[in-house]
Amino acid sequence: MKLLALDSSGLVASVAVLEDDRLLAEYTINYKKTHSQTLLPMLDEIGKMIELDLNSLDAIAVAAGPGSFTGLRIGAATAKGLGLALDKPLIGVPTVDALAYNLYDARQLICPMMDARRSQVYTGIYRFEDGKMNIITGQKAVKVEELMGELNALGQEVIFLGDGVPIYADLIREKIKVPYSFAPAHVNKQRAGSVGALGMVLYQSGQVQSAAEHQPEYLRVSQAERERAARLKGQKQV
Question: What is the rounded distance in angstroms from the CA atom of residue 150 to the CA atom of residue 139?
Fold first, then answer.
């Protein structure tokens, strides 16, 4: 099976191609350019390097959210466009689950933290057992203090990763009561390779959709939508 994987859900833009149990190519950028500038050129570059025929793909996996609203829309539009043009199915991979998959078979609890602004993070709690990732707490938006309380209640060592960690590192250190560590640089951000690897698992369990069906999972409304709702509420009260 050959799979294209895309992740533009956060600060990182990442593209990968996997074939069965091999990661053929992965291109990841964590720099200033916007994902709309980078995603397709990255795909074109690795396509040339591995002589990829896009028609040889079996499916396209995409980080489906939560994450940056703009980034998720860019990733979804790219995946849907390719899926429709190539007539290939899509695999919507939960972003936080894929981030946890970076630390496959870790002995600790795994706690990804993506900055969700407004003193919240997109997060979940995961554990690997017998080579399978178990979801202890599914992905959600929550305040960091509340998350630390959940982890303290579980009473197990935990490893943190994600772009929310440097933002809330001091608060983590203050509130966490169990042994903990922070993942190193090569696995602490989104990677399309992990989206693809987890996408393979989901594909084999039948969790696929057509390109037309795919929609990002935002978990909460955008700032613009909140402001619009507030304005409408204010108009009704006048």
Answer: 13
- pLDDT tens track of the chain, all 238 residues? 999 999 999 999 999 999 999 999 999 999 877 888 899 999 999 999 999 999 999 999 999 999 999 999 999 999 999 999 999 999 999 999 999 999 999 999 999 999 998 889 999 999 999 999 999 999 999 999 999 999 999 999 999 999 999 999 999 999 999 999 999 999 999 999 999 999 999 999 999 999 999 999 998 754 544 444 445 455 555 4
Identify the CA nearest to 123 among candidates 73, 79, 159.
Answer: 159
User: Cα–chain-centroid distance for residue 139?
Assistant: 10
Q: Cα–Cα distances in Å, from 158 out to 37, 134, 172, 184?
A: 36, 14, 11, 14
Nearest 5 degrees, angle CA 164-CA 105-CA 29? 45
